[in-house]
Design brief:
heterodimer; A: 440 residues; alpha/beta; ten-stranded mixed β-sheet; 38% strand; B: 246 residues; Rossmann fold; six-stranded mixed β-sheet; four-stranded antiparallel β-sheet
């Protein structure tokens, strides 16, 4: 990790040259934090992966990546043709691509911002300064400091007060390079009072030969009564390491629903820190992992109930096969003023082989009376009796396995409110269980 | 149709059946009664190929074929059906999906084309009336949240959907109230024919009041120790099992 101190000093001028000055403004403090964290890094939050080791796998590029000029609509055709996206955005190697927008998009009048981090800083400097890096700086660790140091661009969704965006927005976030590469990605989401939006992020790495790793920081701000649905699908190559930190801040009566689905990866680490800061905020954090071979995933979810009458529901399900390793660590904390909190946390896992491993650590810390909280975890094989019941009706063993696994994950997919996305994910998952997973 | 010769089984190392012999012909209804732990449910589990039960000795032939060489799903294709004593709940697996997959597997085995959605729904509708199974139940997950009576009716509904040659009803009457018992028994009677056979495993005579068995067997310590007609069931009801132990 220390080599990144030298790299930052060496490349800072080049990094700054391509970025908005407001983005560069945050690098200095991040650099200080990074150096501090180097000496007091606490990896206890994660059960299995020692993240710092993975940063060394790929080389960082700063100028070359910017030279890529492509029309993403031609190069990357999404497999969800019926997703009625209001707008589609493409991020390649961390940079938000500018391209000629489609005709139907031109007809729409945009009363919100969806696009590049640099452009956002230019167009909305005050909003940028109010939100950018505020959570990351405060709640983040060495990875978020690393990201803020080196980040050159990213994606922003900014929905102003009272604006309701009915149609879902899709962000295709891709990595493609000829050699091993380390990339930084950044997503900033701001929904002001009573704003509503749905965002679907599809993570793809395109080259099967190279190793890719990326550090991603997602900051979500939901102001009073904002409603946000956020879906993430990870379908990278099996040589991709994803290290993501998501920070959420919610105000009065805001509602967040998020589903993170991991299908293809090498190593994934998703860390969520959700703060319910004012009364009646609601957060639904769902995760679905279906992995096999030597894939590995750590999900770490912290939900802080900092105000009364908030509710949270965290459900994470894993289906592990072969020699894959899954880990879930969750923590709900209820502050001493957060009475009438409703908080539920569940982690359920199916082991499909004798060689896969699952580590589960659900935690609950309650500092006040008059709350309704529960947490639990279960890990096991498919129910032998259920399998036999199905076989006795003529359903072959493999099909019975398949049906039971689909049933197991059905409640996570049910929570996805974008119908086309739900159908497509259902198809992808079906293919996965039948071991025919191809391009989505 | 079914010939069981000198059947010995064990489960978790414990011997349950000890040389059971039984012959059933098409068109017959056999009742098997016996005290708890005598091996009634084990016999039904063995017939449908539950892998938890180990056959240590003996043979089972179904329509001339060695039944023990067939997998549970293949036994279903051959025409053997077990109505479970405790029907299993399958949360998230809809009845429609479950039945359609199963029915089409049966058809595939016979070299027939899968049923179209329309034909499948027609078949379901027609069959539902046999056991008065509510229309909403078919849209729910298999047995999940069903009452005891609904679960048993669902088993008979499935039996009607498959039209099996040999049906084994493992304590289908247990947990049913009088009305539900009548509905289930009526359903079974409608499905009875000269081409199929039924084994009724029960503790009580009350189901036999509705479905008259050709033969009543008493299973005790893993063997059939007495066979008779319906009067044997009456005698058991009066005297219990103690007199047989002598």
């Amino acid at each position: 990790m220390k080599r990144y101190i030298d790299l930052f000093r060496e490349k800072k001028i080049i990094i700054d040259r391509f970025c908005n000055p407001l983005l560069n403004f945050f690098r200095k403090k991040a650099f200080e934090n990074f150096q501090k964290f180097l000496f007091c890094y606490n990896s206890k939050d994660y059960n299995n992966t020692h993240i710092t080791a993975f940063l060394g796998i790929g080389k960082m590029e700063f100028e070359e990546l910017l030279k890529v000029k492509i029309d993403p609509h031609i190069v990357f055709c999404c497999g969800i043709p019926y997703l009625n996206s209001y707008i589609q955005h493409f991020v390649l190697n961390g940079y938000c691509l500018s391209y000629k927008i489609k005709k139907y998009e031109q007809k729409k009048s945009f009363n919100f911002f969806s696009g590049s981090l640099n452009k956002f800083a230019e167009q909305y400097p005050n909003v940028f300064l109010k939100y950018y890096n505020k959570q990351s700086d405060f709640k983040g660790d060495i990875l978020s400091a690393f990201n803020t140091m080196f980040i050159q661009d990213g994606y922003v969704l900014y929905i102003p007060k009272n604006v309701i965006v009915e149609d879902p927005i899709q962000l295709n976030s891709m990595i493609s390079w000829n050699v091993n590469l380390l990339v930084n990605k950044r997503i900033l989401i701001i929904l002001e009072e009573r704003a509503q939006a749905k965002l679907f992020v599809c993570d793809h790495t395109i080259n099967n030969e190279s190793f890719f790793s990326f550090v991603q920081v997602v900051e979500i701000y939901l102001e009073k009564q904002a409603v946000f649905d956020f879906y993430e699908l990870e379908k990278n190559t099996k040589k991709t390491i994803r290290l993501t930190q998501s920070f959420v801040s919610q105000m009065d009566g805001s509602k967040l629903t998020t589903s993170t689905i991991t299908l293809n990866n090498f190593i994934t680490q998703n860390k969520y820190i959700v703060d319910l800061n004012s009364e009646c905020a609601e957060s639904n954090i769902h995760g679905l992992t279906i992995i096999d071979e030597k894939q590995k995933i750590d999900n770490f979810v912290v939900i802080n109930h900092n105000a009364p009458k908030c509710s949270s529901n965290s459900i994470h399900k894993y289906v592990l096969d072969d020699e894959s390793v899954g880990s879930f660590s969750g923590k709900i904390t209820v502050a001493n003023n957060a009475c009438k909190t409703k908080a539920y946390q569940s982690n359920r896992n199916i082991l499909s082989s004798d060689t896969c491993q699952m580590y589960s650590n659900p935690q609950l810390e309650i500092n006040v009376d008059n709350v309704d909280c529960s947490h639990g975890a279960s890990t096991g094989y498919l129910d032998e009796l259920a399998l036999f019941y199905m076989r006795s009706r003529g359903i072959p063993n493999n099909d019975a396995n398949y049906l039971l696994k689909l049933a197991f994950i059905s409640d996570i997919l049910k929570e996805i409110k974008m119908k086309e996305l739900k159908n497509q994910l259902q198809l992808l998952v079906n293919k996965y269980f039948k071991k025919k997973l191809t391009k989505c | 149709m079914l010939i069981i010769k000198n059947l010995h089984t064990s489960v978790n190392g414990k011997k349950v059946l000890n040389g059971l012999d039984l012959q059933i012909h098409a068109g017959e209804v056999h009742a098997i009664m016996g005290p708890n732990g005598s091996g009634k449910s084990t016999l039904s589990a063995v017939l449908v190929g539950n892998p938890a039960y180990k056959i240590t000795e003996g043979e089972i032939f179904f329509e001339g074929q060695n039944l023990l060489s067939f997998l549970p799903e293949e036994r279903s294709y051959l025409g053997i059906f077990l109505s479970f004593q405790y029907p299993i709940e399958l949360p998230g697996v809809s009845m429609v999906n479950f039945m359609r997959t199963a029915i089409n597997e049966h058809r595939r085995y016979k070299g027939e084309k899968p049923l179209t959605s329309v034909d499948f729904l027609k078949k379901i509708k027609k069959t539902q009336s046999i056991v008065q199974l509510g229309e909403d139940l078919i849209n729910r997950s298999v047995n999940e949240g069903f009452s005891g009576g609904e679960k048993k009716r669902n088993e008979i509904f499935q039996m009607a959907m498959f039209s099996p040659k040999l049906s084994i009803l493992d304590e289908t009457d247990s947990g049913l109230d009088i009305d539900a018992l009548r509905i289930v028994a009526d359903g079974i009677n409608k499905l009875k024919s000269t081409n199929n056979a039924i084994i009724i495993i029960t503790h009580y005579k009350r189901l036999l009041d509705y479905i008259c068995p050709d033969l009543v067997h008493i299973l005790y310590n893993g063997r059939i120790i007495k066979t008779g007609d319906l009067s044997l069931a009456l005698e058991l009801e009066k005297k219990g099992y103690d007199w047989l132990k002598l």
